[in-house]
Task: inverse folding
């Protein structure tokens, strides 16, 4: 969800997220900080914000102009998350890059 929000959003994105999930950023400043971190990292992770006990890693899928058009996510039981997420993120990011080429 976070990586999909890294693109253009309307003013209600934060409130819609909270309405759907009951959690998440409580201000535009908090939402913008969360999205900026996702943009810098080129992937996002959420820890049980959508489903308790489940964490999701998701890099964006970019179009030919570099705009995010979708996200590929991998959900895991939060307790099973490895300490070093790099190999998991790399594999999911590869899937996002392959998906971007399927036009």
Result:
């Amino acid at each position: 969800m976070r990586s999909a929000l890294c693109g253009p959003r309307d003013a209600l994105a934060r409130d819609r997220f909270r309405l759907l999930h009951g959690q998440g950023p409580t201000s535009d400043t908090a939402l913008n900080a969360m999205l900026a971190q996702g943009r810098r990292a080129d992937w996002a992770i959420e820890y049980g914000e959508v489903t308790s006990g489940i964490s999701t890693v998701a890099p964006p899928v970019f179009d030919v102009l570099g705009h995010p058009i979708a996200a590929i996510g991998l959900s895991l039981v939060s307790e099973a998350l490895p300490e070093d997420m790099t190999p998991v993120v790399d594999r999911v990011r590869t899937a996002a890059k392959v998906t971007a080429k399927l036009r």
In short: The domain at 2-100 is CATH 3.30.450.40 (Beta-Lactamase). The first helix runs from residue 2 to 5.
